[in-house]
Amino acid sequence: MVIVVTGGIGSGKSEVCRILSDSYGFAVYEADRKAKELYVRYPELLNAIENALGCSFRDSSGVFQPSLMAARIFGDDEAISKVESLLFPYLIKDFKVFAETSGNIIIFESATVLEKPQFAGFGDKVILVDAPFDLRLERACRRDGTDREAVLARMNGQKLMNA
Questions:
Q1: Tell me, what's the pLDDT at 161?
Q2: Residue 129 to residue 93: CA distance in whole angstroms
């Protein structure tokens, strides 16, 4: 069984997943964290994304910098679609491998999975985590060490979570 834990940025998804993992032993697949790992594990994926968008997301020593990608794609629906079309096959494959060794109940944490057609019908149950907008904004700024404008741009990209 796959339980999708979803909600807007800063809503408390990670805390809910921590409780489910600590209290019940459920394995948790953190899609956002895994995506960042996949960019590093599969250089051809990051190369394809950089080629599709015509820019680099690496520092001067060639190390992937997620903040550079976030600054480039959030607020640009076309860029997000390009990234997702390249990333999601890797993410789905990685999740399947994770699921094979993670027990009967698996938590899939993602802020946007329900918005994505590639994941239509994904998951057996859904837990929607919510919190007041201002609290979510404050949490995300503190957690990410970034300013309000950067977090607001990401929040605006989560269409269903802000409806």
A1: 46
A2: 26
Mean pLDDT of 22-45: 95
**Going by DSSP bridges, is the β-strand pair 125-129/27-30 parallel, antiparallel, or unpaired?**
unpaired
Enter the tokens of residue 132: 């007041």
Encode pLDDT of 81-128 as tens digits: 999 999 999 999 999 999 999 989 999 999 888 888 888 888 999 999
Phi/psi at 72 (5° precision):
-80, -40
CA-to-CA dists, residue 145 to 26, 116, 128, 153, angstroms: 29, 27, 25, 15
Please report the DSSP string for 43-96 in residue order: HHHHHHHHHHHTS--B-TTS-B-HHHHHHHHTT-HHHHHHHHHHHHHHHHHHHH
The owner of tokens 């590093």 is: 40
When pLDDT is cut at 50, 70 and 90, the band that residue 162 belongs to is very low
State the pTM of this model.
0.83
Give the residue from 22, 17, 13, 4 showing the smallest Cα distance to 131.
13
Calculated CA dihedral for residues 10, 35, 33, 113, nearest 10 degrees? 40
